[in-house]
Design goal:
The chain contains three helices and no strands. It has a domain of 65 residues. The protein is mostly helical. The longest helix has 19 residues.
Length: 95
């Protein structure tokens, strides 16, 4: 049985059960959104924009199975776009 520490490079915890595939604690779209916020925190707006493009592609393509959290995911995407806009246009935030 293989274990990965809580401090691995990706920050992902997973377990192997009976030799099956690893179980991840978050959806890929959630991880991309976290990476987006991390890029914003580091003022790397080009990367943040690219991550939003990837996230938008993931959320707008036809889903294979219905996602019960689709509305929440779309709302998070809109909020992320708003955050990036405000970071790129700080002079318009208070005027």
């Amino acid at each position: 049985m293989t274990y990965v520490s809580d401090t691995d490079a990706s920050g992902i915890e997973f377990l192997r059960q009976g030799g099956g595939p690893p179980r991840y604690s978050r959806r890929l779209s959630d991880k991309i959104l976290i990476a987006f916020h991390h890029a914003c925190d580091q003022a790397d707006y080009e990367i943040a924009e690219q991550l939003l493009f990837i996230l938008e592609n993931m959320l707008t393509r036809r889903a294979v199975s219905p996602d019960t959290n689709r509305r929440k995911s779309i709302e998070s995407l809109v909020a992320a776009h708003e955050r990036l806009w405000h970071l790129r246009h700080p002079e318009k935030n208070f005027g």
